[in-house]
Design goal:
Helix content is 50%, strand content 0%. It has two domains: 48 residues, no CATH class; 53 residues, no CATH class.
Length: 104
C-alpha cells in the first residue's frame, strides 16, 4: 500500500510519543473502512518498540488473554505466555509492574 499525505497525523503521534515519560496519553484512531488507519499506526510504530494487537470478535476473556500473550512475547515473559491474564485489571496491573517498560 502506498503511504500518502499522512504527515500531520504522524506528527501528532510523534508529539504524543515524545511526552510518554511525562504523562499518560491515549490516541484514538477512527474513520471509514479501507482508508489506511492500520497502515498509519504501523508506519508510526515501525521504528519504535511496540506491541501490535488487532482484536477480533471473540469473548472478552479471549481478547484479553490473546493481548496478554502478545505483550508477554514482547517482554519475553514465559510465565505469562503459559498463564495469560483474563481480566483487564490483571492485564493492566501486569503492564504497570512490568520492569521492561521502564526502558521504552
Amino acid at each position: 500500500m502506498r503511504f500518502v499525505d499522512r504527515a500531520d497525523e504522524i506528527n501528532v503521534f510523534e508529539d504524543e510519543f515524545a511526552q510518554v515519560n511525562k504523562r499518560a496519553s491515549l490516541a484514538v484512531v477512527y474513520g471509514r473502512r479501507r482508508i489506511g488507519k492500520t497502515e498509519l499506526i504501523k508506519k508510526f510504530a515501525s521504528n519504535k518498540p511496540h506491541v501490535y494487537f488487532l482484536a477480533t470478535l471473540q469473548s472478552k476473556e479471549d481478547v484479553i488473554a490473546n493481548f496478554s500473550r502478545k505483550a508477554a512475547e514482547f517482554f519475553n515473559d514465559t510465565a505469562t505466555l503459559g498463564n495469560p491474564h483474563t481480566t483487564w485489571a490483571g492485564f493492566f496491573g501486569y503492564l504497570e509492574r512490568e520492569p521492561n517498560l521502564s526502558h521504552l
